[in-house]
Amino acid sequence: MNLKHGTFKGGIHPPYGKESTALVPLGFGEKPKMVTIPMSMHIGAPCTPCVKKGDPICLGQKIGEPNGFVSVPIHASVSGKVVAVEERPHPSGDQVMAVVIESDGLDTIDPDIKPYGTLNEMDAEAIKKMILNAGIVGLGGATFPTHVKLAVPPDKKVDCVILNGAECEPYLTADHHLMRTRPENVILGLQAAMKAVGVEKGFIGVEDNKSDAIEALAKAIGNDRRIEIVSLHTKYPQGAEKQLITAVTGREVPSGGLPADAGVIVMNVGTAAQIAESLTTGLPLYKRLLTCTGDAVNRPQTLEIRIGVAFSSVIDQCGGFAAEPGKVISGGPMMGVSQFETAVPVMKGTSGILCLTKESAAVAKPTNCIRCGKCLSVCPIHLEPLNLAAYSQKGKWAECEENHVMDCIECGSCSYICPAKRTLVSSIRVAKREIVAQRRKGN
């Protein structure tokens, strides 16, 4: 099998951390007795609850009504009864409106749910409508509504769809398991996305350390010559959207631009697989694969988990804590969000639950910058992180903006490589948020 091999300039090689789960068979979470489903699980406007306390609920039933174009409905992940509609703790750290459902253990499917049929029977608009109705968002962590991503503006010319199968974030193996065990869904979802956008070329980018996934996908592609697998160099952040586009096509997204400006639509392999599942079963997005791992967990593994299950329940299903945790992170160590408690629920974008011991989670004390330039050499966007961080710490937001701070993807490569252990990405993140806040005030 002859594969094109792609990469980008910059990046780092953090400890892999995937050995404990990559070869462990995919597991399936226990049926939950209770789920807490937030009404804010995607980029864009949060949903409004359309059920009330005491209502009977079916699996797959819509419980959250979208508000606006950049929003998607939210569905029940169990059948049972609504026991509360109220604000609950959210992985973002906020209190967010949520629907709490007590399961009856029956998983009675909403009677209105039916398979959509074959892909040949659907046109582009029907595919996008199905994706919206199924509540599908980007499952790589960004959670951007997929139907919006596929609605290419008339002034943009897109000629291909790229699936992101890099999974470059350390520790996480959900996408690897998916590509290896359900490659047919990944390919069908890509074919659906290509039809929705009206293109005849699709790529799947997979890091070259996942040869078993590449082989499974190649077999599932069969005779479809429109789809090509690109073997990617193993490094971080190989799966970042702009870096993936460069590695696969050689094109660059302009500063401040979107993938469509480079003629590309990018989706995660998990998103594609969910499109296929919703197409063939009629069921909305109500579960996902995630990796529960780290040296503070007894039995690290990748599991299929219902939306709304508490982090604590997932950890218990992995044998509980092996040692007192120093940090629990939603996602991976580079771009994940530290949690203040484990009662928060699994959401559509929860790709992993990383549990680290106090020793592993210890943060080194930063010292003065030695002007070594390492942060410049690894930045995948070719920014100057040391200068951006310095401007941010002095509140010089205009200087930050002039030096393209808004192009930063917050990958953390600069902080990782810094010998002085300076928290560069944290300072840059502060600047970006301040600039966004000032823009809103200006409007």
TrEMBL record:
PROSITE patterns associated with the record: 4FE4S_FER_1, 4FE4S_FER_2
Coiled coil (residue ranges): none
Transmembrane stretches, start-end: none
Keyword Transmembrane tagged: no
Keywords: 4Fe-4S, Cell membrane, Electron transport, Iron, Iron-sulfur, Membrane, Metal-binding, Repeat, Translocase, Transport
Membrane-related topology note: Peripheral membrane protein
Signal peptide: none
Annotated [4Fe-4S] cluster 2 binding sites: 379, 408, 411, 414
Pfam families the UniProt entry points to: Complex1_51K, Fer4_8, RnfC_N, SLBB
Domain (4Fe-4S ferredoxin-type) ranges: 360-391
InterPro entries reported in the protein's UniProt record: 4Fe4S_Fe-S-bd, 4Fe4S_Fe_S_CS, Ion_transpt_RnfC/RsxC, Nuo51_FMN-bd, Nuo51_FMN-bd_sf, RnfC_N, Soluble_ligand-bd
Positions annotated to bind [4Fe-4S] cluster 1: 369, 372, 375, 418
EC number(s) on file: 7.-.-.-
Cellular compartments annotated: Cell membrane
Cofactor(s) needed for function: [4Fe-4S] cluster
Cofactor mode of binding and number, as noted: Binds 2 [4Fe-4S] clusters per subunit.
Role of this protein: Part of a membrane-bound complex that couples electron transfer with translocation of ions across the membrane.
Family: Belongs to the 4Fe4S bacterial-type ferredoxin family. RnfC subfamily.
PANTHER family attached to this UniProt entry: ION-TRANSLOCATING OXIDOREDUCTASE COMPLEX SUBUNIT C
Subunit structure: The complex is composed of six subunits: RnfA, RnfB, RnfC, RnfD, RnfE and RnfG.
Name of the protein in question: Ion-translocating oxidoreductase complex subunit C
Organism field: Acetobacterium fimetarium
Gene: rsxC
